[in-house]
């Protein structure tokens, strides 16, 4: 009967300062513990790591280049801008790094099925791909409304052999898909692995996803040292859940010379737009759900307050009743009312600075990079580029900015072309 439990001190840290934890139903404690113990074991396993490196190289296309954006830098007339080209990864974004890592974990843990939730479908496609790659059956939970909005991603997932389960409960979007996936996992964890897409959710997911994305920062460090023989002055990355940013930041966190900057979705501006309506509704005693604030942004670290969301304690966009706000961003990947708990810690410690960038600025940056360099950035990544453009002009020519170009923007061309037209 005796389970071979690891001693307490060998487990991973459950909290980042006060943030993180496991705020989940009792039923999920056991599978989370199983995941943690297996992860600790496999992290040190030579075969696991060799296999992981093999697929990162041969399937995902790593290492990705570090590219000096010469014409962009010249145009801005300030610091040198380097781009870490995660847009060149298989499927066009950094998400594949984590998907390969976790799908291999699942395989080594003997799981036969993979489940995941997806909003815009980017994470779903990446999970469907690695499930095909490793011969695992795959179910993707997606809100019915999101599935309608993202038909081509649904088709991609289905062609890769995944079953897309359209969730009809609640608002029929991402958070309902999350709830449904968790319910399914609680009933099926014996043979099913839940593959989370960012550094969010209950412990140990934020740590596992961070570790798999740290490859970005490790490569970038080696590459910038080779190109410039010194570390960069700034590293800039966009923050949705926070995985591409923590991935590039992590190997530089202890450096005192590198300034780390996370860029959040400023949307249409940082004011929470129906605050007034909300106050009036309260006065008139209308239903409390009418008071739910709709944010015009996704700037969780700039405007959020501490709260529990999706299994961990972090900053979150919520109204006075603790109801989660609907976030807004022109980019699907940043349109999220929560943020990974480690970012909340890094913000409070002052180790990383977080700034908002608006939709309109992201669109301008998208167009400028495309025109000057022939590189179409994802709208998510365009937020980081927009911040870098403003900063570069204030810096000296010998200073260096490294931007994480988290993904490619082919998916966003219609959005950019239609922006401001209605
Ligand atoms: C999903 C996505 C993001 C946001 O997710 P993080 O976990 O914050 O990295 C950013 N950029 C691209 C290209 C994405 O696909």
Describe it for me?
This protein has 16 helices and 14 strands. It is 43% helix and 17% strand. It folds into two domains: 163 residues, Rossmann fold, CATH 3.40.50.1100; 231 residues, Rossmann fold, CATH 3.40.50. The termini are far apart. With 422 residues, the chain is an alpha/beta fold. A six-stranded mixed sheet has the order 3-4-14-9-10-13, sandwiched between helices. The site of pyridoxal-5'-phosphate (PLP) has 18 residues, from helix 10 and helix 15.
CATH C-level name of the largest domain: Alpha Beta
Label the structural class: alpha/beta
Ligand kinds: pyridoxal-5'-phosphate
The strands making up the biggest β-sheet line up spatially as 3-4-14-9-10-13
Radius of gyration: 21 Å
The domain tally reads 2
| First and last CA, distance | 65 Å
Oligomer: single chain
What is the count of DSSP helices, taking H or I runs of 4+ residues? 16
The tally of beta strands, per DSSP, is 14
Characterize the largest beta sheet: strand count, sense, and whether it forms a barrel.
Answer: 6 strands, mixed
Look up the CATH topology of the largest domain.
Rossmann fold
Order of helices and strands: EEHHEHEHEHEHHEHEHEHEHHEEHEHHEH
